[in-house]
């Protein structure tokens, strides 16, 4: 059981990196669809309002957490199918 957790670590790292890239791409598309600028505002963008910065940050965080959870869950499910053991 412990060997599976150790073996899953590199897989989890790769899935984490992939989920971060995927979440960034999803957020960018959602932000454009909402009719905002091409780029979301950063916290120190002087020309953007507090409201816009906080909405962008909240939306980005929600999308990132959802995509990460979905990718992690899919990876764990795949490991269970392959090995019969849950990796967590």
Structural overview:
The protein is built from two helices and no strands. It has 88 residues and is an all-alpha fold. It has one domain (2-83). The mean pLDDT is 88. It comes from Streptomyces melanogenes. The chain crosses the membrane at residues 6-27.
Kindly list the characteristics that best describe this protein.
mainly alpha, 88 residues, 75% helix, membrane
Briefly say what this structure is.
This protein has 88 residues and is mostly helical. It has two helices and no strands.
End-to-end Cα distance, whole Å, is 10 Å
Average pLDDT over all residues: 88
Q: Could you state the order of secondary-structure elements as H and E? A: HH
Please give the number of β-strands.
0
Helix and strand composition category: mainly alpha
Helices and strands, with pairings:
Blueprint: H1 2-33, H2 50-83
Helix pairs in contact: 1-2
């Amino acid at each position: 059981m412990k060997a599976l957790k150790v073996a899953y670590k590199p897989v989890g790292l790769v899935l984490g990196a992939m989920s971060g890239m995927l979440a960034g791409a999803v957020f960018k598309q959602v932000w454009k669809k909402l009719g905002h600028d091409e780029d979301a505002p950063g916290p120190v963008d002087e020309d953007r309002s507090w409201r816009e910065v906080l909405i962008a940050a909240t939306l980005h965080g929600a999308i990132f957490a959802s995509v990460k959870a979905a990718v992690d869950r899919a990876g764990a499910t795949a490991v269970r199918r392959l090995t019969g053991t849950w990796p967590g």
